[in-house]
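HUMAN: Now follow token order:
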Amino acid sequence: MSEPLRQGRVAQRPDDSALSGRTADAVRPGVREAIKLDHVTKSFDKRKVLDDVTLEVAEGTGFCLLGRSGTGKSVTLKHIIGLLRPDAGHVFVHGKDVPELNARELAEVRRSMGFLFQNSALFDSISVGENVAFPLRRHTDWADSKIREVARAKLAEVGLENDYGKMPADLSGGMRKRAGLARAMALDPDILLVDEPSAGLDPITSDEIDQLLVDLKKGGTTLVVVTHNIPSARHIGDELAMLHDGRLIARGTAEELDRSDDEMVRAFMRSEGGG
């Protein structure tokens, strides 16, 4: 791997394209990795969506993956959770090579991760509370009374303590996002993957969701957040990375990306647009 860069320097990839900021082996000595992508490449219909992507996410930190639509951000999340296999390279979660796991091992790793979908992906035919209870019923042998108690507690944590019996159709967009977050955290996962948390939300509600994510991080949850909302990324992310045409072109703190040698990165970081 490349040696870590000093601030403001540029790394040369093997194909001579520049990675602005720090190289992917930037997890500090003594800090444990929650997630690592090692030279991951993925193509669909001969189009490379991920091109030799290497990055690491330290435990208990917020990592925001930036980029324009169609640059491979959501595909990266799907590799982490094992919904896609790389054409080349490796994906590690807590040191386990996800594409090499059997079905039982993959299920165990997935249980350590929650996933908040862009559209919340609630089941419309069951109540909000039963949506949160769903992973508990599927992955535990707890009594119904305990499952309901935990589901109510998770809803309370996101400010929906009075909405257990409501149907998803009765919720606003922000409330649906909160309910999706409660379901994603139902099993107390170590890692939370979040796809565009501010999508479709007004700025005030977006800020509220961001703060819920920051509070989870403070409690020790590792966050991997896909977003093109720069104010949100600045709030959540300890470290940011930017994908362009499937390649990782920048990585570092928000301040480091602000000073990037790459004009595209600097322009993206100046954006104040929301979800």
Observations:
- The chain has nine helices and twelve strands.
- The chain has two domains: 10-112+190-270, 121-188.
- The two ends are 34 Å apart (CA to CA).
